[in-house]
Amino acid sequence: MRRSPAAGRKTAIYDNLAHLPAIAGGKPVRARANRLVFGAPVLGEEEITSVAECIRSQWIGLGGRVERFEQEFARYKGAPYALAVSSGTAAIHLALAALGIGAGDEVIAPSMTFCSTIHSIVHTGAKPVLVDCCRDTFNIDPAQVACRITSRTKAILVVHMCGRSCEMDPILEIARRHDLRVIEDCAHAIESTYRGRPAGLMGDVGCFSFYPTKSITTGDGGMVITRDSELLQRARILSAQGMTADAWSRFVGEPGGYEVIEAGFKYNMTDLAASLGLPQLVKIEDHWRRRAYV
């Protein structure tokens, strides 16, 4: 039986595709029903119990569990101040806004990062200035940072990619010389340190993510940490619609109202989310050691 030339070409194409990765048209190694899950969270009975207790309490919005989560995360990081928010993206946006970054400003950021790092700059009205990263670390190249500074540069937003800290000493020196603010995107770097210093506390503000693929998850969520009490207070007000007092502080404090003093955002964390994260905080170092030796 003869095959047509077209059939022969079709067979050759299939033979060639067999050598390609699936993303380029080849056959997948695994069927969709047997996929490897990227970053599946480690959740158990403690987390289930904690969430159930929150639901039974009838207080699932911003409340005491969020406050405790902030305190315990701050203790873990050695931070004087912490603010729990709705996402890592919200944390970065709040940090930039609280630092006064806005229209006409430039913020230096790495070219290798997730899009939300850059989106947060854009949402303030500022211009992101992308700088290449080092091939061996995937982190922003300090030498190139120095070359991209202009009269409009107001801040450097570094990303500790894949948990490996940036070379912070030269970056902080550049920032000091040019009077720039430094924001640390620590979405991958909850446990990370640089020469004995914790990620998130070397610059002006550190931002963390609790997305399901991260070392701690609250379903979604984030955290802002800083040594600057005024910066933290402005971020807290901005995170709660620009109000001087949220529902929880009014509930546990003196009777009274609130004022809206800025056009803020709805970025607060909820007790329901915090109740998922609280049991994980005490396990974070054990989980880090487990990953380190797998």
Task: Explain what this protein looks like in three dimensions.
The protein is an alpha/beta fold and 294 residues long. It has two domains: 5-34, no CATH class; 49-292, Aspartate Aminotransferase, domain 2 (3-Layer(aba) Sandwich). 39% of the residues lie in helices and 14% in strands. The chain contains eleven helices and nine strands. It has helices spanning 5-17, 45-57, 64-77, 88-98, 115-124, 142-147, 168-178, 229-239, 247-252, 271-281, 284-292, and strands at residues 81-85, 106-110, 127-131, 153-159, 181-185, 193-194, 197-198, 205-209, 222-226. The strands form two sheets. A seven-stranded mixed sheet has the order 1-9-8-5-4-2-3, with helices on both faces. Helix 5 links the parallel strand 2 and strand 3. The longest helix is centred in the first third of the chain and has 14 residues, at 64-77.
CATH topology of the largest domain: Aspartate Aminotransferase, domain 2
At the fourth CATH level, what is the homologous superfamily of the largest domain? Answer: Type I PLP-dependent aspartate aminotransferase-like (Major domain)
Largest sheet: 7 strands, mixed
Question: Which percent range describes the beta-strand content?
Answer: 5-15%
The secondary-structure element order is: HHHEHEHEHEHEEEEEHHHH
In angstroms, what separates the terminal alpha carbons? 55 Å
Given this structure, which CATH class of the largest domain is correct? Alpha Beta
Name of the CATH architecture of the largest domain? 3-Layer(aba) Sandwich
Strand order of the largest sheet: 1-9-8-5-4-2-3
Shape: globular
**What's the mean pLDDT score?**
90
Radius of gyration: 23 Å
E-strand count: 9
Unreliable segments of 5+ consecutive residues: 10-14
Number of domains: 2
Q: How would you classify the helix and strand content by structural class?
A: alpha/beta
